[in-house]
From TrEMBL:
One GO molecular-function entry: transferase activity
Tree of life domain: Eukaryota
Family stated for the protein in its record: Belongs to the CoA-transferase III family.
Keyword Lipid biosynthesis: no
Swiss-Prot/TrEMBL keywords: Transferase
Keyword Nucleus: no
Protein's name in the database: 11928_t:CDS:1
Organism (species): Acaulospora morrowiae
Organismal lineage: Eukaryota, Fungi, Fungi incertae sedis, Mucoromycota, Glomeromycotina
Pfam families the record matches: CoA_transf_3
Amino acid sequence: MLPIIDSSKVIFGLKRTLSENGIKLLISNKRYSQVTSAPKPLEGIRVLELGQIVAGPFCGTILGYYGAEVIKVESPGTGDTVRALRGIDIDGVSPWFRAIGRNKKSCEINLRTEEGRKLARQLADRSDVLIENFRPGVMEKWGLGPEELYKTNPSIVYTRISGFGQTGPYAKRPGFASVCEAVAGWRHINRFRDQPLVRQNLSLGDSLAGLTAALGIVMCLLVRKKFPPNARSGQEIDVAIYESVLNMMEGVLPEYDRFGEIRQPAGNSATDNAYLCSDSKYIVIDGDGEFLHEKLMKVIEREDLVTAECKANKESIQHKELINAILDWTKKHTSKEVLEKLEKEEIPCAPVYNIKDIVEDEHFRKRDLFETVRVGENMENGGWDLKLSAITPKLSATPGGTTWAGPDLGQHNREILMDFLGLGEDEIRELQKNGII
């Protein structure tokens, strides 16, 4: 049985928002969903997710959060790789998968078999959106490329996520996030000068690609409404991880084009740095600009450092005297004291948080950034609550939300294969016997 969750833990702010708009809130504990009078913006859209790990699945997570029905196709017996990544819970599944798989329906199909691909084709014919993040050419090899699918479903939005895109000299290269972050220039910028490059402990490029793909899908769905019935209104979306990273590189390209200047890593500047406090916690202080610089020097009682050289942003990047002066001050105070003094003067600052700090921070709770779902209700211990981060942006009248955690592998096999595709019990058993599902 699919876990049912307390709506008060999930639909944060909904009662207040709907009440203000004079709309009655309705909650129904149905098996697969909680029903409210406020429709989610993507309700009625069916998404077929053929990807795994981060980029493709994160795109599906965003769409599902805002109401799309997401059918996640997984390899029989093993499922998405994320199921076994990072910490593994007592049910044998990683909490990470319970997050990225939220609101999705899991269907086991072996795409490496002809019968499995036939099933996937039938699902695609009944879907509005397809998401895949295989290496370019794999879907065509399987007879599931866009041109094939358009023959029977001309309105499908065919979304492709890969490391380097579907065309170009690098298209066939394997493209993990770390590699794509490097070639897009992010790794060059995000480091200290004259020190080895480091990798953040997150797949930033994958998440950016998933977000980029979700944006493209929503735009294509809007455009699709402008076409007459039965016209080829679908589009192919080509998302490259390295291009998604390049999109966030600010003015690096035009600066180089106009001035021949290659933006270099800055590490930490004097007035934009993380400083250690007496309680061994770090505070980031951003006092860039002449006005903020003067205020900061006044707070730390070093107004002698308000000089033309120190006030110039470019010079302050490596101004060791200034850095040491600020550090000497922060090390004499606790992080709380530093924050209070800086906030009083309206100097931008913040503590460097780990996830424990985030969970305990009142601001995050007041912003309704945590949702709780029930996992493992069919286990002997009755299951447990799992905290997930909400997905943004927040919509005032048609909010998204987590209805259920990432499902067990193949949890929706029968619903999808029998209800959607009309297969009978004997056909299901035969497919299972042959390793197709």
